[in-house]
């Protein structure tokens, strides 16, 4: 029986699935979250509800855990850094600070000679005016964005007046890629050149929110190899410990681009729970808690369908699943439009 207690910052569904995976390998979890309704409180061993800048609560939390990780990237850097003085925080806070910021993130990827979309830093309205060349494009806040939040698609310069963009924030403007496909690669790094990497996952988005994922991805051998190679390069350069996801675009000419990096377990990897011997969640827990590495093996091909907003209702009322289908209800009380309420995995 292990004596490790893992602290997790953030209490969404990723925190729930990390807690379930930890429990399976006898690791206790304590979740700290600033949302009283955090769904992960139903799955962890202990729950702290407090603000991320509540020094006293943070100190109490740190005292109770052996190691700390996080399940979403928008935790204040200050909190991660302060915690790291008390107990080890993994992935390292500096990694999170880099990836939290879209401009720093993209500069980092380009320095590795890995292709990204074309982008420019935008600090005020005037910066946008000479940038016709980047349109159609998407204006994205440099920080705090997820599931398409903080994004403005812009087709032409004239739209800028009507969009009501909040210029108290900073942005990047990204040229729109003519997408053929989106894929993601999930990798868990345990130490120097020690990692487990899952095969590329093919993803479909609706309104900038992930809707569907599947393995195998229908991609060429070249894209299959290059996406894995780039994910390894990124994880190695960051000296990352834990599970990381790289999201990619493939354009109509079969060029691969890194879209973004998630320094955490990822929605597209939910199918690893049922399709692999070791899930992305268990691997994350194993890596941050310095447990042994188990070679991963795919057991099934699979598909995952996100249940967004009202889509959860029929499954709550009458799940009626066959034995290759697995329903995950995140147990969120309020059903909201665009809110991820659960997912369904179908093994093939
Ligand atoms: P988030 O942090 O909200 O996940 P992303 O940058 O990943 O933001 O954008 C969400 C989705 O929007 C992408 O998965 C893709 O479908 C679409 N998208 C974003 N940027 C571009 C782009 N430059 N070209 C084409 N599609 C894009
Ligand atoms: Mg994304």
What are the salient characteristics of this protein?
348 residues, alpha+beta, 9-stranded antiparallel β-sheet, 11 helices, 27% helix, 30% strand, binds adenosine-5'-diphosphate, binds magnesium ion
Walk me through this protein's architecture.
With 348 residues, the protein is α+β, with helices and mostly antiparallel strands. 27% of the residues lie in helices and 30% in strands. It has eleven helices and 17 strands. Strands 9, 10, 11, 12, 13, 14, 15, 16 and 17 form a nine-stranded antiparallel β-sheet that branches. It has a four-stranded parallel β-sheet with strand order 3-2-1-4, sandwiched between helices. Strand 13 (242-251) and strand 14 form a beta hairpin.
State the gist of this model.
The chain is of the alpha+beta class and 348 residues long. 27% of the residues lie in helices and 30% in strands.
Assembly category: single chain
User: Main beta sheet, described?
Assistant: 9 strands, antiparallel
Q: What's the shape?
A: globular
**Hetero groups bound?**
adenosine-5'-diphosphate, magnesium ion
The CA-CA distance between the termini, in Å, is 35 Å
Figure out the total of helices: 11
Q: Average the pLDDT over all residues and give the rounded result.
A: 96
Q: What is the structural class?
A: alpha+beta
Radius of gyration: 20 Å
Strand content: 25-35%
Give the total of beta strands: 17
């Amino acid at each position: 029986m292990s004596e490790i207690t893992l602290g997790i910052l953030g209490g969404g569904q990723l925190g729930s699935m990390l807690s379930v995976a930890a429990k399976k390998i006898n690791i206790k979890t304590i979740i700290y979250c600033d949302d009283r309704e955090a769904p992960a409180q139903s799955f962890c061993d202990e729950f702290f509800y407090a603000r991320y800048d509540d020094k006293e609560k943070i100190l109490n939390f740190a005292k109770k855990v052996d190691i700390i990780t996080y399940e979403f990237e928008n935790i204040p850097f200050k909190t991660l850094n302060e915690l790291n003085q008390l107990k080890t925080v993994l992935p390292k806070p500096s990694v999170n600070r880099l990836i939290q910021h879209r401009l720093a993130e993209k500069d980092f990827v380009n320095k590795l000679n890995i292709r990204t979309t074309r982008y420019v830093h935008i600090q005020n309205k005037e910066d946008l005016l000479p940038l016709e060349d980047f349109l159609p494009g998407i204006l994205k806040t440099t920080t705090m964005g997820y599931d398409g939040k903080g994004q403005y698609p812009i087709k032409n310069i004239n739209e800028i007046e009507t969009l009501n963009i909040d210029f108290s924030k900073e942005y990047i403007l990204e040229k729109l890629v003519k997408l053929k496909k989106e894929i993601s690669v999930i990798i868990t790094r345990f130490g120097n050149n020690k990692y487990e990497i899952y095969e590329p996952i093919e993803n479909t988005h609706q309104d900038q929110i992930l809707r569907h994922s599947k393995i195998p991805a229908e991609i060429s051998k070249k894209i299959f190899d290059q996406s894995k190679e780039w994910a390894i390069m990124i994880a190695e350069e960051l000296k990352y410990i834990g599970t990381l996801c790289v999201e990619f675009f493939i354009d109509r000419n079969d060029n691969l681009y890194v879209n973004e990096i998630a320094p955490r377990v990822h929605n597209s990897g939910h199918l690893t729970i049922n399709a692999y011997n070791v899930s992305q969640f268990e691997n994350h827990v194993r890596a941050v808690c310095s447990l042994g590495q188990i070679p991963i093996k795919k057991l099934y091909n699979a598909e995952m369908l996100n249940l967004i907003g009202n889509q959860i209702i029929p499954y709550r009322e009458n799940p009626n699943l066959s034995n290759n289908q697995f329903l995950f209800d995140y147990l969120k009380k309020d059903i909201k439009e665009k809110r991820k309420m659960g997912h369904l995995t179908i093994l093939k």
